[in-house]
């Protein structure tokens, strides 16, 4: 079994080997840039580790793994325009460093590139991989649209929120695991296990992201605390507060959301106090663990020896405990 | 042989049968909208007519033909954001009717949909069709980037301009013809003929578009005359004028391009007068005919009986003579 460091090394080299030294420069430079500023490379790691559960030879999974990473970065590129985010991974976003038109177009080119990488899948799996890949890609768009719909909606239910993050985040993680399984020759039953593992872990990760925006350690998290609060983002914490608050507290929250010229730190403090009073912290931690454990139960069901699962288990645990 | 009206009817029904009655509505409504406001459906027509050269049964080409139409409309959607165009086919553009975020995201979803339609290609042709489709899609992005690069460049050469319109316009027309040929079972030689027909006809059409912006009949053309002049678009006519003008006239053109608060009609008149004095009208007409004839020579080389080519020839001639 390859360990996580081996896998990361393979991915790093494979990304470096992608050739974007092409003309016109203003189309390809932003692609090089966003791929070079890193990130956890979670999705391609999952492809390769899932493949490695079933076969030693993960060579055939490398290009498909690159496809998930390039696709993911394409969604970040377009999402950053839509969310008007100026920074990503402590660097300027593409639309800020260049401009919006360049971000739109190089994003388009990235998505096409991700399809080209997926097209290097072994021919016997090609059709099914592309069917699931395009289905997943469309779901990610749906998730992003729901997320935008929620901006002007103060009565988002937990169910609606879960549906949104499943589409926006979890399906791509689930697809990555399943993709690795397909190329590794997993059984239909195990492909389902991998997919369900991904959905649950994906939900868990997103809930944790929401959680860390309020309760994370800024030094570990790498993002400013309270970003989501300032931008009125409909996180799990906010949605749950709106659901659990009594009439007066609900009015207070909505007032905080609608005020235009608020001092950011004051707003963060006030909303955090409301979360604390409603025990949102504990509630969210419970949910994170619930979905994580749920996911792991699907990993346990996968029909390969337990020792082969150790590395994947280790990395999933590391990711979920990373900051609290 | 199916005639052009039969082909148009098939395309109309097939587009109507595409199901975008899906949630979230703000993702799928703009797709329905842009596909419903028509256009010439040139690309899917070319797919089906090219296929029909080699086989009576064009059924298998219908979904791939839809893929070219959906892809083309995706590029229009994103190009309209980048060009800040408010109107398209006498209707509001998507980013104007909704907003930019919705136009970016539903454009992304359209591109994914076009890939899904292409995935319905018969399995034996699937890999090669998708390889050429994604290559073409990337070239179209490159063309759009060159077009944007030209906005701030006053020394675009004819060669650079031709390269740009080949990428932005001609390769998709060439791909459409070749795609029909592949599905119809054409020989490698005839696939090349189809592709070269498409490149030349595509150049010819784009030159004609440039030409009609200045010399077209507004009632037939359906667009306001002089749009390209007002927006300083680097058309063939402008590029050629900058190349052929003497020093003083060149200064005059550049001055007209750089003035901010110009009366539009006056600007159109002045630029048109310069074109006339440099015989740009005749020169452009000559070029349009040159590439058109060049294209037709590749059609003549295709190894099927002449009577099978009649319908395709007729429609190409109709398109090129449509307004002058």
What can be said about this structure in brief?
The first copy, chain A, is mainly α.
Write structural notes for this entry.
The structure is a homodimer of 324-residue chains. Chain A has 324 residues and is mainly α. Chain A has a single domain, classed as Farnesyl Diphosphate Synthase. Chain A has a two-stranded antiparallel sheet with strand order 1-2. In chain A, a hairpin with a 2-residue loop joins strand 1 and strand 2. In chain A, helix 4 runs antiparallel to helix 6. The longest helix of chain A has 28 residues. Chain A starts with a helix and ends with a helix. The relative contact order of chain A is 0.11. The mean pLDDT of chain A is 95. Chains A and B meet through helix 4, helix 6 and helix 7 of A and helix 4, helix 6 and helix 7 of B.
Secondary structure category of chain A? mainly alpha
Q: Name the helicity range of chain A.
A: over 70%
How far apart lie the N and C ends of chain A?
29 Å
Largest interface: A-B, 37 and 38 residues
Which SSEs are present, and which pair or pack?
Two copies of one chain form a homodimer.
Chain A: H1 4-17, H2 25-36, H3 42-54, H4 62-82, E1 87-88, E2 91-92, H5 94-97, H6 100-118, H7 123-150, H8 158-184, H9 188-215, H10 218-221, H11 227-230, H12 236-244, H13 247-258, H14 264-277, H15 280-301, H16 306-320
Antiparallel strand pairs in A: 1-2
Helix pairs in contact in A: 1-3, 1-4, 2-6, 3-4, 3-8, 3-16, 4-6, 4-8, 7-8, 8-9, 9-15, 12-13, 15-16
Keywords:
324 residues, homodimer, 2 strands, Farnesyl Diphosphate Synthase, two-stranded antiparallel ribbon, 16 helices
């Amino acid at each position: 079994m390859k360990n996580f460091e081996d896998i990361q090394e393979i991915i790093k080299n494979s990304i470096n080997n992608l050739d974007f030294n092409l003309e016109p420069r203003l189309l390809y430079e932003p692609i090089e840039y966003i791929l070079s500023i890193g990130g956890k490379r979670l999705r391609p790691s999952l492809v390769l580790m899932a493949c490695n559960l079933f076969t030693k030879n993960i060579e055939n999974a490398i290009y498909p793994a690159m496809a998930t990473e390039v696709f993911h970065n394409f969604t970040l590129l377009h999402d950053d325009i839509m969310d008007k985010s100026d920074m990503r991974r402590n660097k300027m976003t593409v639309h800020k460093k260049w401009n919006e038109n360049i971000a739109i177009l190089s994003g388009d080119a990235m998505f096409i590139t991700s399809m080209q990488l997926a097209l290097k899948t072994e021919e016997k799996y090609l059709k099914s991989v592309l069917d699931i890949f395009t289905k997943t890609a469309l779901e990610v768009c749906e998730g992003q649209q729901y997320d935008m719909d929620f901006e002007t909606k103060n009565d988002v239910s937990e169910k609606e929120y879960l549906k949104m993050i499943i589409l926006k985040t979890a399906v791509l993680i689930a697809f990555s695991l399943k993709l690795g399984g397909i190329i590794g020759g997993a059984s239909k039953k195990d492909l389902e296990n991998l997919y369900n593992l991904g959905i649950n872990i994906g939900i868990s990760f997103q809930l944790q992201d929401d959680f860390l925006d309020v309760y994370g350690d800024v030094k570990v998290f790498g993002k400013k605390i309270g970003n989501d609060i300032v931008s009125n983002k409909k996180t799990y914490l906010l949605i749950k507060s709106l659901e659990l608050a009594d009439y007066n507290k609900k009015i207070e929250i909505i007032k905080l959301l609608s005020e235009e010229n608020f001092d950011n730190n004051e707003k963060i403090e006030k909303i955090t106090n409301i979360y604390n009073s409603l025990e949102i912290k504990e509630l969210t931690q419970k949910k994170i663990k619930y979905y994580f454990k749920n996911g792991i139960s699907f990993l346990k069901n996968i029909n390969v020896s337990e020792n082969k699962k150790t590395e994947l288990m280790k990395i999933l645990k590391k990711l979920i405990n990373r900051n609290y």
